[in-house]
Amino acid sequence: MLDYKSRVLLEKYGEITERTLSHSDIFMTIFTESYKQDPLCCFQLGMAIMMNKRIALVVENGTTIPNQLNKAADAIEHYDSSEKDSIKAAADRLLKALDNQELR
């Protein structure tokens, strides 16, 4: 159970997240091991799933994707953090793959 102050902050953050996500069809994020440890990142991802957004993950090599998230994601591409242009190339591949898919 959350204390009152935490609940108020979470509700406010939820409203801001919902307003931000409502203007897009796709939720794309850079998914790393540290991302999984950040409660606000996980909250945003959960909100995107609940709002039926298409989920696109740009995943750092070596990052474990939970099975249920793997099933929920519409597209996943990996990148090598040691290569300068790898993350951009992965994001470009994701957008291209999503362009070729029919919207839900």
Task: Please give a structural write-up.
The chain is of the alpha/beta class. The protein has one domain (about 5-100): Rossmann fold (3-Layer(aba) Sandwich), CATH 3.40.50.450. The protein is built from five helices and three strands; from the N terminus they run αβααβαβα. It has helices at about 5-20, 35, 40-50, 65-70, 85-100, and strands at about 25-30, 55-60, 75-80. It has a three-stranded parallel beta sheet, with helices on both faces. The termini are far apart. The model has no long low-confidence stretch (mean pLDDT about 90).
Using brief descriptors, characterize the structure shown.
3 strands, globular, 104 residues, three-stranded parallel beta sheet
Rg of Cα set: 15 Å
Low-confidence stretches: none
This entry's quaternary arrangement is: single chain
- In the CATH hierarchy, the architecture is 3-Layer(aba) Sandwich
The main sheet comes to: 3 strands, parallel
Please tell me what the overall shape is: globular
- Number of extended strands: 3
The averaged pLDDT comes out at: 92
Figure out the total of helices. 5
Identify the strand order in the major beta sheet. 1-2-3
Helix/sheet category: alpha/beta
- What amount of the residues lies in strands? 15-25%
**CATH structural class:** Alpha Beta
Distance between the termini: 35 Å
- CATH topology, which one? Rossmann fold
Number of domains: 1
Portion in helices: 40-55%
Can you write the helix and strand succession as a string? HEHHEHEH
